[in-house]
Amino acid sequence: MTSYRLPQGGLIDRGHPLSFTFDGKALQGVQGDSLASALLANGRRLVGRSFKYHRPRGILTSGAAEPNALMTIGSSGRTEPNTRATMQELYAGLEARSQNRWPSLAFDIGALNSLASPFLGAGFYYKTFMWPAPFWEKVYEPFIRKAAGLGRATHEADPDSYDKCWAHCDLLVVGSGPAGLAAALTAGRAGARVIVADEHAMAGGSLLSETAIIGGTPASAFAEACATELRSLPNVTLLTRTTVFGWYDGNVFGAVERVQRHIATLSPSRPVERLWRIVAKGTILATGAEERPLVFGGNDIPGVMMAGAMRTYLNRYAVAPGRTTAIFTANDSGYQLAADLEARGVRVSAIVDPRAAGGATYAGKARVLRDAVVTDAHGGRSLAAIDIRSGSRTDRLKVDALAMSGGFSPVVHLACHRGGRPVWSDEKAGFLPPANFGGLTPAGAARGIDGLAACLDDGARRGANLVATFGFTATPVAFGTVEGDVPVSAPAKTLWSIPGGKGKAFVDYQNDVHRKDLDLAVKEGYGHVELAKRYTTGGMATDQGKLSNVNAIGLLAEARGLSPGAVGTTTFRPFYTPVSFGALAGAHHGEHFQPVRRSPLHGWAARHGAVFVETGLWYRSAWFPRTGEKDWRESVAREVVNVRRNAGLCDVSMLGKIEICGPDAAEFLNRVYCNAFLKLPIGKARYGLMLREDGMIYDDGTTSRLEENRFLMTTTTAYAAGAMNHLEFCAQALWPDLDVRLASVTDQWAQMAIAGPKSRKILQAIIDEDIGDAAFPYLAAHEVSLFGGALHGRLFRISFSGELAYELAIPAAYGDSVAEALMATGRTEGLMPYGVEALSVLRIEKGHVTHNEINGTVVPADLGFGKMVSLAKPDFIGKAMLQREGLAAPDRPRLVGVVPLDPADTFRTGAHILAKNAAATLENDQGYVTSSAHSPHVGSTIGLALVKRGDERHGEEVVVWNGLNGEFTSARLCPPVFFDPSNEKLHA
Amino acid sequence: MASLVPCPHCGSRPKEEFTIKGAALARPAPDADPDSWFHYVYLRENPRGAYEEYWHHTAGCRRWLIVCRDTVTHQVNTSQDAAAAKGQAA
Ligand SMILES: [Zn+2]
């Protein structure tokens, strides 16, 4: 005997059948079904296997707490594992597959784990898998992973889109049950901006499963009327299928809206899910209460169900749980269920109530057994019988469905996300939300209010009071008399453990934690709630113990002789229910994961065959291969040689460019650079070193004085944003008295380096002014006119390569044309493009440093810039700390060149320097190679290195040690400038 | 961490728009003794309660702010422009 669909009733549309599959078998449900109700309507009780023991499991709940009915939905890129069938709306063509079974759900080999269960008790991870250590990787972990029973994520890309948004409101109402609806209507009618969020498809919460009449309207119709009114109010947003999953600082709530998770054919113009961040002045927590299971033997056999869930399936989905039902209840809610079942023609054999005087108003046909408990349930894949103990006597009763209700736990999760702890109430037999913790007001069952009328009233009053604090005059909405409202009434005493049972009595269904595991945890000294959680894994599954935690606390309390309040809860953290990675990522995936920055000369580079390399967000041209070149080294070497012999053009647009203006601009620069800038003449560029306040070099670049009070600073590509932030800090926080303004102009200019002996001749062809050495000497920097006045740009005579070289800055939009014009006019001179690889070789040959050398541990003197530092200045960033003794220590690593003794030998960047004949130990480490390259000019590998006393050791034979690859290269230290040390080329 | 940070120029904005530098300490005079500089550069309090920090509204008005927040409750108590805090116009 099993569950079946009733011929009438329910909030379903029998005229709208929906086909779906479960484990490949075609089944039919109707519009309005959840996947769970459709499975039950088809008599499908067995829906999954348990995590550890692979026990047959059925549907236990009708909501978000479901621990058993986890399924994989969809296929290929839309595969969604671990979907709770209770939360999944049915749609035509839905494909669901059970999880954690092999080879099939009905016959599962893993169920043999049940036989091994003595070895799988609490703490088994720690006890069983201790030794020997290599077994962990090879044996234990694969075994655990294979046994671990959850769905598998797909490796295919998710084809759908996700969205994110912010929303602001006066009042957020979480949950649209009786309290939530009442609060929202009260606040909405008063004109407050209200957002109501409910995780289910329809607003109404428990009202949808309720048979009571409110003000003459049946509860479900009442819920619909409320929802209709809320939707009609322009100041109210009603979000269904939306789970508020977290409460964050600043009264910001995270919520996920499942926009298209219930639809057969997705609209490509809408997201499947939308992540909301909701800023609320106040919040009504109307999340209701979660019914607790009772912990008796076999309480996990398919056919055993929460009483409230059974009522929902019956009233909302018109699904009867079985032919012969029993109810095991420790409160009066079970009697309402009995009345509803009998009204629908389902036989109730017995109501088992551990209390002496429960269900006083019950007038149905079922036998009521008071002072009695169910000790065991029997059956394999479907419930067959239960053992009822009354006094000293135990009777077996044949039933095919059993409802259970151990009491109600307010859903306090959100209220505890910001550090508040729930408070145990003996009166309510549950943990209540923390009082007065921030801007969150619980209402209705979420704060232990009992009964429909009381919840409606509480929601309306609390909603009115809350919006009154924001200046709204609100009258609590009155809904009229409630007929058929039977308050649950808290059980006289909580019923944690049930003595006399023989079978496994489950506490945490999803992680297969049963009562004896908790007993063992206490016995072995892990009775503290946080320890018991880790020791037993109770509460650590994907449901985070929604059904089990309070029972576990109750059992621990009993075993330790404490009150549940003294045992306390574990910590509540977001998310309330699992949130998809898709929703969290939103649009930030694939090419939208991060922006791409392309230089204004990107097109030019691409047309000339550039191979691009990602540097941060930028795509820089790395080299420009030509036909016949075997590999990138050959291309780079050709580019380097061509710069030295003729001329090359390199895109340097991505260097940071900051304009610094104002009467105090020179003074400002003088304070942010360690070298002097006050007297930089107009029309001149100067190399500048920026230090951190600890004296180490932060960044370098050239700064040019364009006008008396107008400078242009360049920074390295990597530090462009950081340097801007730093300058703004200096200007705003340190020296707001200086009259200076900063503007980043990196994107406004296309900048190209034209380097090589023929660079002047090539440039002169397009530049109107004379740029001969006399008129435009080394470090000249000023505006120039191009193409007979058609365009203006800025020309800087600066060189990274050591050659006669210029940098030409052109308004970004004209950069491409100017670069092409130069290529055309320069062709006869041998002008070729070169990329950052060649640029790097050229600068290493010339001994110029980059952030390879400026590694955060070097001061100017370490790089040979000691004399640049102007200690005569009254103040600059880093001045005070730079003068510390240790930073002038003689054995500091200092910049030096390094070449292999045998030109055929090579070494790599990052390799360490050892004195000749020294053992390869860390103690003997002398420093390391910061940059290296093959130098066409030298004819071998060359390197720059930071070596102890490096500047004093030119000529010394050393060994370059690459410990990773076990390579040793004999080498010689040398001056760091390999090319034109007298700077003749530079000044040509 | 606060989800929203009040900017005196832009209003309440998501924390993702800001970067934090750290404690809002006064920079010592250039000729202050080495101890003062050592404290300024390296030593930080780790208070339980109110804490003043430099926050940069990087993805907003690009002003540096002095934000006072509570390290226990994450409540932002005050937020003012760093220049204004020094008595200068922002
Ligand atoms: Zn701002």
UniProtKB/TrEMBL annotation, chain A:
Residue ranges constituting the Aminomethyltransferase C-terminal domain according to the UniProt record: 894-980
Lineage top rank: taxon: Bacteria
Ranges for domain SoxA A3 come to 502-586
Where in this chain does the entry annotate a coiled-coil region? none
Q: Does the keyword Zinc apply?
A: no
Name the UniProt key words of this record, in alphabetical order: Oxidoreductase
Gene3D superfamilies, per the entry: 2Fe-2S iron-sulphur cluster binding domain, sarcosine oxidase, alpha subunit, N-terminal domain, FAD/NAD(P)-binding domain, Probable tRNA modification gtpase trme, domain 1
Q: Where is the GCVT N-terminal domain?
A: 601-873
Record domain FAD/NAD(P)-binding: where: 170-313
- A Pfam family annotated for this chain is GCV_T
Give the signal sequence positions.
Answer: none
Q: Which family does it belong to?
A: Belongs to the GcvT family.
- Output this protein's name: Sarcosine oxidase subunit alpha family protein
Q: Which organism is it from?
A: Shinella lacus
Q: Lineage of the source organism?
A: Bacteria, Pseudomonadati, Pseudomonadota, Alphaproteobacteria, Hyphomicrobiales
Automatic annotation (TrEMBL), chain B:
The family database entries (InterPro entries) matched by this protein are listed as: SoxD, SoxD_sf
Instruction: Return the protein name.
Output: Sarcosine oxidase subunit delta
Q: Which domain of life is it from?
A: Bacteria
- Which Pfam families does the entry link to? SoxD
